[in-house]
Each structure stands twice: as C-alpha cells, then as structure tokens.
Amino acid sequence: MGQTIAQKLLAKASGQPKVQPGKIMEVKLDRIMIHEGIGWGIADAIKNLGVDRLADPDKVVALFDHFAPPPNEAAANFHRLCRKFVSDFGIKEFHDMRKGICHQVMVEDYVNPGEVIIGSDSHTTTYGALGSFATGLGFTDVALAMVKGKIWFKVPETIRIDLIGKMSDGVSAKDVALELLGRLKADGANYLSCEFGGQGLNNLSVDGRLSICNMSAEMGAKVALMPVDNQVTEYLQLLGRPVLPDAILEPDPDAIYRERLVVDLSELTPRVALPHSPDNVCPVTGAESVNVDQVFIGSCSNGRLEDMRAASAILRKNRVHSRVRLIVIPASYRVLSSMASEGLLDVFIKAGAVIGPSTCGPCFGGHFGLLGEGEVCVSTSTRNFVGRMGSKRASVYLASPQTAAASSVAGYLTDPRKLL
Amino acid sequence: MDNRLKPIIGRVHCYGNNVDTDVIIPGKYMSSTRLEDLLPHTMEGIDPEFPKRVRPGDVIVAGTNFGCGSSRETAVTLIRACGVQAIIAESFSRIFYRNAINLGLLVVECPGISGAVTAGDEVKYDPSSGLVENLTKPWIAQGTVLPEFLMQIVVQGGAVEAYRKSIRSKEM
Q1: C-alpha distances in angstroms, B141 versus A157, B97, B129, B138?
Q2: Do A137 and B23 touch (CB under 8 A)?
Q3: Does the beta carbon of B81 lie under 8 angstroms from any beta carbon of chain A?
Q4: pLDDT beneath 70, residues of chain A
Q5: What is chain B's Cα-based Rg?
C-alpha cells in the first residue's frame, strides 16, 4: 500500500520503512521554534518538570514577535522573563525582536525539506511549503519536546488537494487558501495532513505556497505539505541552504487519501472571509458595499515580499482613501530591507500608509492597530474571530493583499481587478 | 494512586460550534501572565458572565471543533482554573485537545450532545464506559473513552506530573 508525503516523512524520521495512519509514535525533532510562548507557559512547564537542561538547546530557535516591540510595561517585563529563560537554558539561536515574525524567520533561516519541526504557534504549518513536517503545539507539549528532544504524533490521514490551471490577474494564493476554507470549513482538515500537488503548483511562487500552507491551520490541519520542486530548491539555494537530494519526497502513486479535491486556479476570483470565521467565504463581489475604517497588510499569512509587491502595484497609482487607515507590516526585516531596495516603501508612504515594525501585533489583537467598537478592517491576516483584533464589536474581513490594497483606496471592500 | 478516573457529574454551560481560543481569552490581555488578571476575561468573546456564573465541578458542553484557532494553552489553563472538570463536545480542535490532556482537563467527544443538553442541566460521564447521560431530562449517548496512555496523563493531573512520575520511577 502506497504512502502519502506525511507518512513518508514520519517513517523516515522514525527509521521505519512505512507507517500507517492512526499509529501513535514518538518522533525525533529537527527544530523547535518558540516565541512569547516561553512566558505564556513553556518556562513554567520546564520549571515544573524539574529539569535544568534541554535535550539539545542548539535545535531550539527563540525570538519575540507577538509583543515586538513591547506595547506596555507589562509586556516589557514579560520579555525580560523570557530572555532570562533563554539565557538560563543556553539557547544560542535567539533573535530577540530583531528578525521578524517567527514563521517567516524560520523559513528564511532554518527550515529544510524533510525535517520534522514543531513550534509554539498554530501557524507552524507554514513550513510545509518547503516539504517539512511542521506543526504547532501548546506550551506543555513544546516544553516536554524541548526536554526530551522528541514528541508523540498520531500519523495523520491525508486530504489530497490538486491545483490545476493558472490564476488570472488580481487573484492570488490567499484567494486559493480562502477558497479551500470555504469548501472544507474550519474543521475540514482537523487532525489531517493537507497534501498539495498538481500542475497548478508550478504557477504559484514559494511566497504564495507559504501563505496557503499557513492558512491550512485554519482548517484544523496538523500539517500542510507540498512537493519540493525546482522553485523550492532555487529559493533555498538563494538563502544559502542547498537541498539534499534524499530530502525530496513524492507521494506514492497508490497512496491512500481520505478525500481528494481539485481547485482550478483559472476559475478562481478574489475571495473574502466575512466576519467572524475564516471559513465564512464568498467572492469579494458579493460583499462590495462594506465600508472600511482600517486595512492591514501583513502577518505570517501575507507579509512577504510578493504580497508587498502586489499591494504596491495598486498603490503606485492610487492614494489611500482619506477615511481609511492603511497599516503595512512586513513579516521580517529581510522583507523590509527588500521593500526598501525595490522602492516599495516609498510607494506605500506616498500613498498614505503607516509602516510598522515586523510584529504579530494587530493580527492577534496585541497592539499596533487594534479596532474600536463598530469598526471594520480588511486584513490579510489569519483570523477574523470575534474580538480577534480588539473590540468584540469590530468586524474583520480576511482577503488578499491586492483586495486589501484596493479596498484601502476605494474606502469600501473592493475587487482588486477594478484597479489593475 | 487509583489509576482510573471516577465518573463525574456536573452542571452544564452550553456553547455552539467553533468556539475559538480568541473568544476564550482574547490576545489583548495576554501581556499579563497572572491568573488573577486573566480569569475575569475567560470566555469574554461569547459569554462575559461566565467567570461569575461558573462553579467548581461544572461541565462545558459544546458543538464541533471546540478550541479552534490559536495554540494558546492559556485557554485551557483558564477554563480549568475556573473549576470546570470536563468539556464534552461533538469534536475538538487538534491543538486544544492535546493541551487539555496535557493540563489534566478531561475532554470527551460525544456526537449528538449539543442538541440534547441545555444550560443548567446536570450531566454524568463515566470515563470507563464512555457513557454520557443527561440527569435532568432522559438522554444517554456513547462518548469517547480516552486511550490508556492519555487517560494516565489525565489521572496524574497532566503531562508535567506524568513526566516527573516516570523519571522518579526510573530512578527507583
């Protein structure tokens, strides 16, 4: 019986020829990513475990992104506690708030195909775009994994998603992710691996693929996995991490899938997730009368260079509506640096945007652009739950960078194809 | 120590589908790690009166995908600190389910429960048989029985305690 990519990765990690879905197994970890989760529970759990050392501190990557930089005194003191933990346990791969949002930093500096990675953040599924079995876990699980160097997983069943065709102008990877959410719903991939394939993937950049794997967490996916093709190999080569040939895994032709679906990219139009769930999806044209107070372009979902290029293409020839606050936050300082050298910062500033430091702030309702009562935000971020971005009487519409940029210009939710 | 969980009986708080961790504890409060700062905001997004109404031993009953969204374990910490002894739902989100077990909070999947129980009812759950019963109006259904290795984590009060015990038993 054939195996899916998820099965092959877990089999390889555990030194077995094959593993079957449903099997519970302990797996050695290649990387563990931690952020402010340190102070939210990881440090306490490790203290309560009564240990004074980690299995391998060099496999741990630590940074701050949620409260970067601290919005208040409590957060500043919170970071002090986190720094002490990092120092006490000898974690050398520590970047404080200098690098950006955890998932983008991991992709830029650490993730390799074939690795098994966990993070103290639900959107760790992002790394599957580079062929890594990567998933988010809670603080106790992460603490135990840091101490033991391994963790238990149930081998997941897999949903196979084949992409065909090519997106038309004004449509982007975020629209693919939203379309999938609309079809599979918020628990449609709960406990499952989402395995992507098909010729349509060739028409998606690595940045776009990362966004789709990122949003798979919103369908409950344990992991999202994409094949390691030439684009991924070149992407990692440019980052100085050549791909080892044996790291490239394809699913077997007779792999068993729980469900299969096909998305024809050429038929896709801009999508939006209406309040208050990422799976409440309709075409942007079905919600165009909504007036907008704030637009946010950023987050681990859509704060990458491709997103900034797409948004700036619309803002190059248009100004932000006088009633709208446009907040632009690059996912990392590497992205910010590229935006500067490509002249994109200038485009955003001239159009009337506010540029923020790399942070999760507005997406998780921490700081840097929260919403007041009754306010409406079009956001490229990950979630639009009640109260997610501030007031629980605010409304968040999730959309692509193009849709967000077009909406910031028009002052209401707008199909970006009108401004291309 | 008795290595089985005893049947539990509790008064019910009812919620719908897709209760996410942002409504359980919004991110805007999370610069504090002090339980007393966070507890009054538990379930704020859907039920602001919950912290005042909840009593030790109560049970949360919910629809599908309970605990979806952020991996913040704080959501489980707070529900447990409010005195809730179990959550019985149609289904749970993956990370929340692991977090609950790891913190020693009993989580039970029970298809059909959301239409069969209303707020204030008393329910009983037997961890050995998996049977879930409404004691206020006649209704009984089959819920899940935790796999043995997860049951042992809950019995010992969570994954940290279970790990400490396993280390101690190796040393002896």
Answers
A1: 27, 21, 11, 10
A2: no
A3: no
A4: none
A5: 16
Fold that domain B8-171 belongs to in CATH: Aconitase; domain 4 (3.20.19)
Domain ranges of chain B: 8-171
Instruction: Note the CATH architecture for domain A273-419.
Output: 2-Layer Sandwich (3.30)
Q: Please answer yes or no on whether A74 and B99 come within 8 Å at the CB atom.
A: no
**Over the stretch A276-288, which tens digit does the pLDDT of each residue have?**
999 999 999 999 9
C-alpha distance from residue A274 to each of A214, A302, A411, A413 (Å) = 19, 18, 17, 11
Over residues B19-25, the mean pLDDT reads 98
For residue A8, count other CB atoms closer than 10 A to its CB: 21
Name which of B46, B93, B159 is nearest A386 (Cβ-Cβ).
Answer: B46
Q: How far is CA B85 from CA A248, A386, B7, B124, in A?
A: 46, 26, 11, 11
Residue B1 has pLDDT above 60, yes or no: no
Q: How far is A378 from chain B (nearest CA, A)?
A: 18
Sheet with B59-62, strands from edge to edge, namely B106-109, B86-89, B59-62, B8-14, B122-125, B131-134, B139-142
Does domain A5-264 sit in CATH 3.30.499.10? yes
Q: Is B44 in CB contact (< 8 Å) with chain A?
A: yes
Domain edges within chain A: 5-264, 273-419
The end-to-end CA distance of chain A, in Å, is 49
CA angle at residue B140 from B138 to B146, to 5 degrees? 150
